[in-house]
Amino acid sequence: MSPLESVDQRLQQAMKLVLLAAAPGLLVMFWLYGWGVLINLMLAALTALAVEAAVIKLRQRSIQSSLSDGSALVTATLLTLALPPYCPWWLTVSAAAAALLFGKHLYGGVGSNPFNPAMLGVALALVSFPQSMTHWPAAHGVDLVTGLQQIFGFSLSQTPDAWVQATALDALRVNKSLTIDELFASHSAFGRFGGRGVEWLNLAFLAGGVFLLQRRVFTWHAPVGMLASLFVISLLCWNGSGSDSNGSPLFHLLSGASMLGAFFIVTEPVSGAKSPGARLLFGVGVGLLTYLIRTWGGYPDGVAFAVLLMNLCVPALDRFVAARQQRIAS
């Protein structure tokens, strides 16, 4: 077996494990929001594979080996988990195409991307179509027919107010006069901490992340750095259960894309830092920026933008840690 074949096999194995670990979160999301999740996944996967095949063909490389490595499917899956389940079909297709084109192949394909492809697709969708990116449904609030009408535009009526609701992060950002008890009373359907059952989704991603850690797909440094910094800054800025509290540490850990970001996004090996110390600092930066964007920024969940901003800092982090280690060694 050649070294190149060995690398390809390791990549395929890692991608399969990531897809397997994401399955619990995908199932919980389907349980919460219904068929829109699977429709989005189908659209994102087909678009990602089509774009991947087209670009590889233009570059005159083996389409079969490129599609079989699983990286396009992983990008499509992570993108699906970050998009609203009933966003228009063209938004999902556009985000998936942008993730593959501008997040991956623009820089040379697998192993060369400086930015996380899935988060680049999410960020472009947030900037370009902010209204469509806020249409999150109430848990168990949409049937299949209504979902198909919303996704594919079969109905000319406006989005039903009965099932489109603000997320808990939206409500906390817009109305800081709400107490935490009032926030949970109006936005939590199945639990108290993350809003509308989202805590179960985050716990599912946590379980998948622990599985990946156990299989040594990545090290603990980036996830621990992100979750620890998010916990610490939210604790420092939290003044108890009263108003204007910005959310408790547990609220921030179990809301939005916290666990998805910690175990499936910041652990991406190509766009992330290389040394263990730099990975820890990378995770810390993502956690801090996520909290700042959530609390004082213009978007309810800042994971995508936080990851992309820290991707820009990766070369500096790697150089800083390497220089510090050299000084210690000398």
TrEMBL record:
CC annotations in GO: plasma membrane
Pfam families assigned to the protein according to its UniProt record, in alphabetical order: NQR2_RnfD_RnfE
Any one GO BP annotation for this protein: transmembrane transport
Membrane-protein topology: Multi-pass membrane protein
Gene for this chain: rnfD
Positions of post-translational FMN phosphoryl threonine modification: 167
HAMAP family hit by this protein: RsxD_RnfD
Record-given protein name: Ion-translocating oxidoreductase complex subunit D
Cofactor dependency: FMN
Source organism of this protein record: Pseudomonas prosekii
Key word Glycoprotein present: no
Locations listed in the record: Cell inner membrane
InterPro entries, A to Z: NqrB/RnfD, RnfD_bac
UniProt keyword annotations, A-Z: Cell inner membrane, Cell membrane, Electron transport, Flavoprotein, FMN, Membrane, Phosphoprotein, Translocase, Transmembrane, Transmembrane helix, Transport
Function as written in the Swiss-Prot or TrEMBL entry: Part of a membrane-bound complex that couples electron transfer with translocation of ions across the membrane.
Ranges that cross the membrane: 38-55, 67-83, 220-241, 247-266, 278-297, 303-322
E.C. no: 7.-.-.-
NCBIfam families reported for this sequence: rnfD
Recorded family membership: Belongs to the NqrB/RnfD family.
Subunit structure: The complex is composed of six subunits: RnfA, RnfB, RnfC, RnfD, RnfE and RnfG.
